């Protein structure tokens, strides 16, 4: 789940990449954005200090995170890794 204000150039760029990746991954991945200005309690709960921050959840638990803008190819690879069969 990306944490963003939606106004910074990096947030806008990441949001664009995420929209494209959502189409590529289809039903295998759900991408949700959260505006930190409108959701300060959630921002604090996940200790988000910089934007953009991407949190990856599996069964309600954070299993990965990325802080800062990344190329779409890096995000694609990261998401694909998280979609591999989970091994506890």
Q: Write the element-wise H/E pattern from the N-terminal end onward.
A: EHEHEEH
Assembly state = single chain
**Helix content class:** 25-40%
Q: Please state the CA-atom Rg, rounded to the nearest Å.
A: 13 Å
Could you give a quick summary of the protein structure above?
The chain is an alpha+beta fold and 88 residues long.
Provide key terms for this protein.
88 residues; alpha+beta; Glutaredoxin; four-stranded mixed beta sheet; redox-active center; protein-disulfide reductase activity
Write the layout of secondary structure elements.
Layout lengths: L1 E3 L4 H17 L8 E2 L4 H6 L7 E6 L2 E7 L4 H12 L5
Parallel strand pairs: 1-2
Antiparallel strand pairs: 1-3, 3-4
Protein model, in words:
The structure is a single chain. With 88 residues, the protein is α+β, with helices and mostly antiparallel strands. It has a 4-stranded mixed beta sheet with strand order 2-1-3-4, with no helix packed on it. Helices cover 40% and strands 20% of the residues. Strand 1 (2-4), helix 1 and strand 2 (34-35) form a beta-alpha-beta unit. It has a single domain (2-83), classed as Glutaredoxin. The protein starts with a strand and ends in a 5-residue tail after the last helix. It is globular, with a radius of gyration of 13 Å. The chain is built from 3 helices and 4 strands.
């Amino acid at each position: 789940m990306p944490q963003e204000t939606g106004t910074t150039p990096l947030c806008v760029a990441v949001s664009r990449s995420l929209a494209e990746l959502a189409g590529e991954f289809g039903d295998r991945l759900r991408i949700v954005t959260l505006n930190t200005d409108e959701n300060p309690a959630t921002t604090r709960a996940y200790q988000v200090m910089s934007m953009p921050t991407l949190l990856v959840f599996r069964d309600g638990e954070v299993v990965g995170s990325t802080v800062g803008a990344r190329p779409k190819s890096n995000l694609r690879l990261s998401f694909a890794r998280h979609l591999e069969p989970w091994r506890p």
